[in-house]
Specification:
Shape: elongated
Oligomer: single chain
Radius of gyration: 19 Å
Bound molecules: fe (ii) ion
Length: 169
């Protein structure tokens, strides 16, 4: 009797190209998380002033969230037979999240965070679309991460609204 061969989805021999493509999307996501960890860690430490306290605390919490995301992306890269890249492959992209001239410039940081979260939301939405019907496990993972980023963005939009209302942004 012939052994029955089951469909292994993204792990099918014929799916190598697709798998490689998903791994590339995941590597980009991994770097975005790592850079966000750097930027938020610096901003949560650098910000000065009474008004900055809430933002500092939110950013410090998000550093943990983003590191958790980076771990999930790294795990999924290896599950798909990829290799998590080394630091020499890193290319910085968050020019908008460099330390401001004045460390009390909370609005600069808030706008930078919204931009970083928007970038993550755009890339993860693309990953969700491109893994649709191809790799439901990656898709499921990225949907959950996407929700976190939407939450982060919403929180900082609220902060910005407050500064705008007071005419400080
Ligand atoms: Fe993240
Ligand atoms: Fe985030």
């Amino acid at each position: 009797m012939e052994a029955k061969s089951y469909d292994k989805g993204i792990f099918n021999g014929a799916s190598t190209d697709t798998r490689d493509h998903v791994v590339e999307l995941l590597k980009k996501a991994y770097w975005m998380e790592i850079e966000t960890v750097m930027s938020y860690l610096a901003a949560s430490t650098n910000l000065d002033g009474v008004r900055a306290q809430e933002i500092r605390e939110s950013l410090a919490k998000e550093v943990e969230d983003e590191l958790g995301h980076a771990r999930q992306f790294a795990d999924r890269i290896t599950e798909l037979y990829g290799v998590v890249p080394g630091s020499e492959d890193f290319r910085a992209e968050q020019s908008f999240l460099q330390p401001p001239e004045h460390q009390t410039d909370v609005v600069h940081v808030i706008r930078g965070v919204i931009k970083a979260e928007t970038g993550a939301i755009e890339h993860y939405t693309r990953v969700v679309e491109e893994t649709d019907g191809v790799d439901p496990v990656t898709q499921d993972m990225v949907i959950a991460i996407l929700r976190d980023e939407q939450g982060h963005r919403r929180l900082f939009e609220g902060f910005l609204r407050e500064y705008e209302f007071e005419g400080k942004a």
